[in-house]
Amino acid sequence: MYVAVKGGEAAISNAHRLLADRRRGDRSLPAIGIEQIVAQLGLAVDRVMAEASLYDRALAALAVRQARGDMIEAIFILRAYRTTLPRFGYSKPVETGVMLVERRVSATYKDLPGGQLLGPTFDYTHRLLDPSLLGDEPVDTALERDEPGEPVMRVSDILAGEGLVEDDGNLPEGHVAGDLTREPLEFPMARDLRLQALARGDEGFLLALGYSTQRGYARTHPFVGEVRIGEVEVELDMPELGFSVSLGRIQVTECQMVNQFKGSAKNPPQFTRGYGLVFGQSERKAMAMSLVDRALRAEEFGEDIVAPAQDEEFVISHSDNVQATGFVEHLKLPHYVDFQAELDLVRRMRREYEERADAVMRDAAE
Amino acid sequence: MTPDVPTSAGLATYNFAYLDEQTKRMIRRAILKAIAIPGYQVPFASREMPMPYGWGTGGVQVTAAILGPKDVLKVIDQGADDTTNAVSIRAFFQKVANVAVTTKTREATIIQTRHRIPEEKLTAGQTLVYQVPIPEPLRFLEPRETETRKMHALEEYGLMHVKLYEDIAKNGHIATTYAYPVKVEGRYVMDPSPTPKFDNPKMHRSEALQLFGAGREKRIYAVPPYTEVVSLDFEDHPFEIQTFDKPCALCGAENVYLDEVVLDDKGGRMFVCSDTDHCEERCANGHRGHLAYNKEAAE
Ligand SMILES: [Zn+2]
């Protein structure tokens, strides 16, 4: 006698109970607090905010904890929350030129107005496991300047002074910035939407694509004009009031990649730019984004499209890790109805194959 | 800097059927357009749902947009009400819409499905919502959306016929067993979602409204009631559905789609209805297959 498998409901509920148990782990250890995650795993929190497109450190930290440290799962949880929030409108463009910089480096100039500011970087650390971090040894407080620095001139503005770099360009008259979380994607995309997609795109995917351009798959001759990390003000225009109000400050990482360009029939020889802007502190993501952004502008500059990083439909369709993980992981859902159909077909084709083989044998024997 | 940690009461609460009314309106507009152009894939601003892409987010959004408090919802996956993802989606709607649910095909006003069409004939007033992974029937012939949209616009379906013809040339028959392409109302070639081709004839001139939601790919399409749905074929190689040698081992049903169940490690197999509601109802009405649990004999 056969009884069909039942009890999906109980199985799911027990599985989730086990998940909660494993998430909490050893009860003799204190539970990790949201404040601790924000303070001590800040870059994980930043990545979740960036790829979830929601600037809220506490909620991102909650998602990290809920996801047991699985970044894509945390991004997914935070996005599913974000999607339920109402949209009030568009902020004014963030002015990164007046950023309160904590880090700012340029690879194109030895020294420049505002100087090179290393900030809290892993660069030049020796990657040796640090036994002092096994415990809770006191840590020296950082040395900080007494007064906030002046706004630091953008490298792109320095180059623009000589007309050597393309300018920011203008959006067409009346162009309203798109919102890919509210409108279906269509190809080809305008650059505003493309940059949005890249800003929430998977760090690893963009890193690999950016890297591929450096290895010759659509080489763009990049220089880091500038990477800056710091706080910027977000302002919202209030038509009722006739002025804009500040919504607060957010930390962002901006990368201006400067690329050699020989010029074309339409454009004089000048440096072009790839752009990266990411929530929080994420230099790797911002740099990778700017490499991919530049590669995706191939058509604009009349360059041959020969490599994956230049292929807008390929890059943008596959950069979203929440979409990608869902579809890859859906393969573990039951597919036995389709598999049954395939089994039936393979059995039939094998039967036909054997019959043909038998017929050949018979012919040969005759 | 210490963050403002929200209290559990401070987190967002959700609207009836999860989606906000603006989003529902947007999805309903897409559905109406889809109904007006049968088989045409309407782009829509698919939302991030609290379940993963590829796990039914398109179907869930369509259901959420059309669900009312008086609806009775049935959710199946592989034809069964008790597969884990069907259980999860049903529980989701019970939680966010407090809607009545059923496993009975006849009682449901909305049936959300993955990979099957119920065996029982659907009737006027019912809506079947399909979860669709890849809505584009031409996708595996041409990966670019920009190209496939053009092909649909120009009704350029030669590539699909060539593919089916190559199957015949190579194997003697068409080697597509599920997601078998159909032509809707003589115009658009449509992916019926990964249902076995066994189910294709049920779509033809169905009394029920059929809606298709692809969340990750952001497309909605529809087959309105009484619409022509024809599986692609050739005159000398007409479309045919799968047949099974034996009836259902539990209820004895013939001409239904069967799942193969492996009984032991010695090659033992049995075939049972994939549509669990259909099977249970037949058993309740006294139909018996050769492996059915025999109550009297057990007593
Ligand atoms: Zn049965």
UniProtKB/TrEMBL annotation, chain A:
Keywords: Coiled coil, Lyase. One of its GO terms (molecular function) is lyase activity. It holds the Pfam family PhnI. InterPro entries: PhnI. Residues 336-363 form a coiled coil. This is Carbon-phosphorus lyase complex subunit PhnI. It comes from Shinella lacus.
UniProtKB/TrEMBL annotation, chain B:
It comes from the Bacteria. Catalyzes the breakage of the C-P bond in alpha-D-ribose 1-methylphosphonate 5-phosphate (PRPn) forming alpha-D-ribose. InterPro entries: PhnJ (IPR010306). Belongs to the PhnJ family. Its EC number is 4.7.1.1. Keywords: 4Fe-4S, Iron, Iron-sulfur, Lyase, Metal-binding, S-adenosyl-L-methionine. It is an enzyme of class 4 (lyase). It comes from Shinella lacus. It catalyses: alpha-D-ribose 1-methylphosphonate 5-phosphate + AH2 + S-adenosyl-L-methionine = alpha-D-ribose 1,2-cyclic phosphate 5-phosphate + methane + 5'-deoxyadenosine + L-methionine + A + H(+). This is Alpha-D-ribose 1-methylphosphonate 5-phosphate C-P lyase. The keyword Metal-binding applies.
